[in-house]
Amino acid sequence: MKPYLISIGVGMLVGVIYALLHVRSPAPPAIALVGLLGMLIGEQIVPAAQRLLAGEPITMAWFRHECIPKITGAPPVAPPDAPPAELAATREPTPRNPS
């Protein structure tokens, strides 16, 4: 959650700076977000192509496990039949912040 808060905070700071300088953002927000989505999707073309060149199939299970988390930012979810050790390996560690 912390990276999202930092991201929105920095974005708001840049927005304030733009307003103080009386300039508009370089791209309308909707166009910028669609462009970012395109970048995230485009990044997944290379692993898919590498998989195809290696002769491995591109399955929905592979796509859900490898691509969807990178596009959406969600941590990968292990398949339901995965052993507990594999489940722990797919989860990102939760940082402890004493403050």
UniProtKB/TrEMBL annotation:
InterPro entries: DUF1427, XapX_domain. Pfam families: DUF1427 (PF07235). The chain crosses the membrane at residues 5-21. Keywords: Membrane, Transmembrane, Transmembrane helix. Residues 74-99 are annotated as: Disordered. It comes from the Bacteria. NCBIfam families: XapX. This is XapX domain-containing protein. It comes from Ralstonia soli. The lineage of its organism: Bacteria, Pseudomonadati, Pseudomonadota, Betaproteobacteria, Burkholderiales.
